[in-house]
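INFO batch 0412 | record 1 of 1 | parsing
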Amino acid sequence: MTALAGNSNIPGVAQFLTPSMFGIPDDGDESQDVTAALLGLAAAAAEKKLSVRLGPRTYRTNGTTIQFSFSVSGTGTGNADTLILSTATKAAGPVLRMVGPGTVENLRIDGNVSTDPAHWNAANHDSFTGSQGLVV
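INFO prediction complete | emitting tokens
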């Protein structure tokens, strides 16, 4: 589990956690992979039994499943929505896995799923790439 004591960005009496507490700026470079920071965020939320609020931006992941135990929600709307995008190019597990009593709200989850081939045949029967969006 991620130790919160060493992270001075987390208030002592936090009611929820945010990506900025784990080094992901709200207005940062959205082309960078933030998997490690999201994994730390999810682990800390589970340890402290806190919900997570993701700001309006794109969070790129590498295909590693991010598992949340408590509620996770996005704060974006319209063109400034909250997107979690897997950039995996091979079939992978789900982008998000929800375990426990939490909820998932106001998020767009993109598993980077490939389009179907024009014609299915023996050579391309397993050509699917990408990830499931959410597993509950």
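INFO post-check: The helical segments are 35-48.
INFO record closed
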